[in-house]
Amino acid sequence: xxxxxxxxxxxxxxxxxxxxxxxxxxxxxxxxxxxxxxxxxxxxxxxxxxxxxxxxxxxxxxxxxxxxxxxxxxxxxxxxxxxxxxxxxxxxxxxxxxxxxxxxxxxxxxxxxxxxxxxxxxxxxxxxxxxx
Length: 132
Fold this sequence. Notes:
Elements: H1 3-18, H2 23-32, H3 36-45, H4 55-71, H5 75-91, H6 98-110
């Protein structure tokens, strides 16, 4: 067997054994394990791949990068990434599973981005004669 064929066979075996995961998925796994700084590091490392990801993977990448920023207290950076995920949710809700949809909506609400939700609920000012 030539050295080139051996290298190709070894590379194929390594890809098969590793499960062919995208590198952003390790960041997602760190987020799910509450290892938020590690998640941010992995997702930042994977950002170069972002333009080549399919629509669904870009949405998941944005979701977990935004959630990770929010978890470490960086709401400004979280807002940019979660806005991308929210647009995906609004146009293709099937992209996210129910747990991910819940995380996104909760994050969106925690940043005060849900329309019509005030400090005391949706109708906190309904009894006011002058309105808000």
